[in-house]
Amino acid sequence: MTGLSSQFAALVVVLPLMFAPICALLRGRTLPWAITTIVSALSFYVSIELVIAVNTGGPISYHMGGWAPPWGIEYLVDPLSSYMLLIISGISTGVLIYARDSIAQEVADKHLGLFFTAYLLGLTGMLGICITGDAFNIFVFLEVMSLASYVLIAMGEKYDRRALTAAFQYLIIGSVGATFFLIGVGLLYMMTGTLNIADIASRFSEIEDTRPARAAVAFLVIGIGIKLALFPFHVWLPNAYSYAPTIVTAFFAGTATKVSVYLLIRFIFTVFDPEFAFGIIQLKDILMPLAVLGFLSMSAVAIFQTNIKRLLAYSSVAQLGYMALGIALASEAGLTAAIVHMFNHAVVKTGLFLSVGGMFFMVGSVYLKDLAGIGKRMPITTFGFVLGGLALIGVPLTPGFISKWYLVVAALETNSNLGYALVVAIMMSSLMAVIYIWRVVEVAYFRSPPEGAEHKEAPLSLLVPCWMFILGSFYFGIDTTVNVGLAETAAAFLMGGAP
Amino acid sequence: MIEGLNPGTILILGALLVPLTSGVIRSILLLVLPILALGQLYALGLGVWGQYEFLGLSIEVTRIDKLSRIFGTIFCIASLIGVIYSLHVKDTVQHFAALIYMGSALGAVFAGDLITLFVFWELTAVTSVFLIWASRTERAFKAGIRYLIIQVTSGVTLLAGVILYYQDTGSIAFEYIGLGSLAGGLVLAAFGIKACFPFLHNWMQDAYPEATVTGTVILSAFTTKLAIYALARAFPGTEILIPIGVVMAIFPLIYVVLVNDLRRVLAYSLNSQLGFMVIGVGIGTELALNGTAAHAFIHILYKSLLFMCMGAVLYRTGTVKTSELGGLFRSMPVTMVFCLIGAMSIAGLPLTGGFVSKAMIMSAAKDYGIVVIWLVLLFARAGVMDHAGIKVPYFTFFGQDKGIRVKEAPFNMLLAMGIAAFLCIFTGVYPAFLFSLVPFEPTYDAYTAGHMLTSVQILLFAVLGFVLLMRYKIYPLEQPATILDFDWIYRRGLKSLTLAIGRLILVVWGWILGVANGALGAIINVTARTHGDGKLMARTASSGRSIALIVAILGVVVVFFYR
Fold first, then answer.
1. First to last CA, chain B
2. Domain for residue B148, yes or no?
3. Model-level pTM greater than 0.95?
4. B342-370 pLDDT, tens digit each
5. A172–B543 CB contact, under 8 Å
6. Do both B261 and B364 map to the same domain?
């Protein structure tokens, strides 16, 4: 590659980073939003280019400032990281199109510029985590993302002051997670003398029996688990998602936790290598019970929720359980299931949160009791929610079905009674998903709207992006060449890349 | 689409969406699903997918070869026709049950092992009964119960056969089984019940005429042809099938002349047609199997066409009794034309699909060297011409005008009939289409002078016979009477015994349901108490406690890794 395109690997991160402070200086409703959207769209474009380049020419290694690794910082774009870039920048751009009217209502005007600054920084952090090939650099980006997200969640205080406590609790627990992560990286640095991921990976087999290395693995898994909202470390997530502004919830639900899933996959399959992780230390015995308990218990909790955003948040924790299960199965099929589900869940959940956002925009509440008869008051928005719900449940022709199909196949591939038990657990969890989506449907369609409630749809600027995600999710449920194809490549790369 | 997804599952899973839709969206959904299934079938091509080891058994969810493909293709087409025909129906239960029924029949055709076959086999039984019950009459309910008992018996017999077969051979592959052992006998009996072997046949004539207008059309296409497919797969060349088929082909013809209800007439003639196919399977040569598959293909088309015509008449006039109908050609001319095309096809008139497929089976019989079979087939063919080809259209549309004036059938019914009629003619005029689908390399020319002459001759004789009988008023017509069939014995004699057993089962079942209900209630209570809003699992723990939990787990994990 020549010219500008040779700098794509850097540009995708640097663009949002550069424009973040500019946004802070801008006033008004339109300008910061427009700049953020354009920057995000540019990142999306660059991500697409990177995906194409990686899938035709193999992984790209970019040396920051021309310093060759292991001394300098290396940006490494391989099939998995380019897939992540695609998800993150794509979701971000879609959500931003929706953001203009929504955020103007939910955040005080004087904070708008800062809001978009934080948003761009959050985007920078996520993209950076996925693209960098340097363990310490990952920590830096993790902190950039986290700090930005604390700010973004706290912005929900205009409507509900509980956003502040939610953000504060997330700050405490998130910082503990980041610290654990840093401790883990530090221990690895102590043992191997390098921070470059490829370098650590090549030396890891020599130190894998030492106590510090084992401790490092524990700290890394738990640290990432906290950021991932792996059950039972999810305490921060339901509150944070319930009280944050709509677009923040939609953006984070689609991407932030997925980034942590990415980290988990990266460390298990690239750094530790699966033979160590699943053969020697039996990571599976820790991950699998948490994953299964997670999706069963959290689906059950979601059934009883009265706040739709909170309901969807618990459902997100359950979905993360599916991804963790895919990883814990330690096979190429399981890994494919986990990676595909990242994509599919990102699209579906974002669509769902955006349709709930539309209801909030018009009605001013996301509690079930206030949304009685919403199906008659806002038919288009509500129908979008129903379709998204079907995708979440995993009805055929939707991406949810594709993910569960791969997950079930991976579970069956183990050819053990455990595999059948897992399939039963997945089915039970899907059944619970039917119930919690049905509760919303029941309230929306079978209760009559309150007297004098106006029948008015959300404005087009909200409807169009929301339906873009809903229809998009159906597209990816039918034509699976992009989501499944790329995920299979990534999984094969990770499994084959293991020495 | 997902690689290797059994086309039948598309219909089944799509059916789950039906209750959520209504109006135009439902119509679109219903129409799209069979087309998607057909697309999936041809997108996959030939091969085997979805192999799993399940408890030591090798499951093979999807197997497409040329034999299963021709049956699958016609099942998809029949689904589409059935769906179009029933578009005007507003009954969610019927659409739902019909889709799952069609999907499971399709799924069974593509099953590569006996376990998968059994699952779909039972599913067709359980779902199809709803199409009978959907009539919502007392008669239909009782007929449905009888139907269900017999169908489930078939499934249980199949399962018993499969288990024995697995013990004998250690394999559950759905391939040639043969009559070598008890296992083979049980499997044959299970298939035989669904294929309406003589003395196992009464469920069909009992139940099909009681189903709804659209239900009969859908039922007539799948269950029996699935059984024919299963026979062709597992028992080709089993000689006992030839005499069975001969009896099947002739025996029902007697009833056909006597029965008053025209849908029951069609059910009996359906039974006779199945005899043709069973003979074809019994002969078991390549030409015979080709003929069987082709005949099943064409048969579904003209039989559902005839059932659709009778359904349209029933829908408009409220009756299909010969004693009450007549002269309808004035009111329903288009239906009349379609009915005639169906009649020509079932009679095997040249230039219709029926001619080609029947000629194939008859030639196979001739090559096989038993002249009797050939003569029987000839006789059966003339008989079919007499009853289904002439009796049905004559008494409905011509004959004595009973003064019934009704509207033409609704458009969607006409469209469905039109598609079936077109395919009947198309396969007759252009048999190469049919030959491209048959399981073995076709080396057959239907349109030789000999075949043409034979068929025209017998058809003319059949017409002559009908005219003579009518002229001298010997034809037993228009008598509203009940005809006793073999099923009288078990409907009366076994009834009291069955009732006693049934009561016992009800008591036990009631107890099981009670216990299950209690257990479920307890689970829901416990879940609500631990996972309910604001309860233990849904509470936001304080940050301090959360961190304590995290640290505790970290400790456990570190110790776990150190070991």
1. 46
2. yes
3. no
4. 888 888 777 888 888 888 888 888 787 77
5. yes
6. yes
